[in-house]
Amino acid sequence: MTGVAGEERSGPLLEPALLARLEALQLGTRRRLAGHFAGEHRSPRRGSSLDFADYRSYVPGDDFRRIDYFLYARLDVLAVKLFEAEDDLHLRLLLDTSASMAGGKLLATQRLAAALGFLALIRRDPVTIHTFPLDRPAPRFAGRGAVGALLDHLGSLEASGTTPFAAAVAALLARPGPQALTVVLSDLLTPEWETALPRLPARGGDAVVVHVLARDDLVPDLLGDLELIDREGTGRLAVSIGPDTATRYRRRAEAWLDDVAARCRQAGVGYVRFLDDDDLEATLLGSWRRAGVLR
Predict the structure, then answer these.
(1) Has residue 239 been placed in a domain?
(2) In terms of residue numbers, what domain contains 166?
């Protein structure tokens, strides 16, 4: 952890009581994704679950046990029943660990990723964790027994460097693998988000952006003559901030948030926002369920 984040974090990323409440949930997707193994998520394939999906005409070689004999008796139509398939869901977490995330934003990102990863693992869904800057390998976790290793890995992340968002998305999409749910957790404080976001649902996958921000990103408590320093090392800027300037900043920040959300909708990407002082449990069990991120 960085010095700031380490000071803010005390104890585990997620309390055991919260983990117990999360066990009743699972990840939500807006489209059906085909995985590699049997799991608990609706698949675009037909399978052998108990949920009826459709009929098709019988052809020689079909399993005679799937013939609907009641339909044959009523309509003299020989058809077999098709059922829903249930696959695993590959969860790819793409975490922004650039210097602008230091402090409460990184801790919030770690805790949110821990909750999502935990939900995936207890439902037999594999998880890979990718970070940008791209200076770490992308470990893969599978099964309930990997929860501890997942939490340890997330807890070891530190915030440093710049935000190569576009390069991170390109590298992620270049990796082979099944259709996946990609969840990006970032403050998006880079102009690259405009070109990178539309690429996220590539290859038939699903994607969600978790916009993690500090409250003072949106409502900074700054007035007077100041020198602003870019945490990612791109320079310094002398400014004079009065009440009118602060008001204009807040309006532009609100307009930017609306623009990000609109661009996500246009790209077919889910969008939720989380501020570093939001209540984690209320968010996960409340607003995220209503938004379809969890179900």
Answers:
(1) yes
(2) 3-34+89-287
Same domain flag for 99 and 165: yes
Average pLDDT, the chain: 81
Which tens digits make up the pLDDT trace of 112-160? 999 999 999 988 889 999 998 776 778 999 988 999 999 999 999 999 8
Q: What is the DSSP string of 82-95?
A: EEEEEE--EEEEEE
CATH number, domain with residue 281:
3.40.50.410
Q: What's the angle, vertex CA 15, arms to CA 276 and CA 27, rounded to 5?
A: 75
Average the pLDDT over 67-95 and give the result: 75
pLDDT of residue 82: 61
Q: Is residue 238 part of a domain?
A: yes
Q: Are 103 and 7 in contact (CB under 8 A)?
A: no
| One-character DSSP codes across 117-133 | HHHHHHTT--EEEEEES
In 3D space, the residue among 47, 39, 164 whose CA is nearest the CA of residue 91 turns out to be: 39
> Does residue 248 sit within a domain?
yes
**pTM, full prediction:** 0.76
230 in the same domain as 200: yes
Count of residues in the chain: 295
- Rounded CA gap, 109 and 79, in Å? 51
Which phi and psi (to 5°) does residue 97 adopt? -115, 30
Residue 171 DSSP SS3: helix
In a domain, 64, yes or no: yes
60 band by pLDDT with thresholds 50, 70 and 90: confident
* Domains: count for the chain: 2
Residues 59 and 69 in one domain: yes
β-strands 140-141, 127-132: how paired? antiparallel
Asked if 95 and 83 sit in the same domain, the reply is no
Note the pLDDT of residue 55: 62
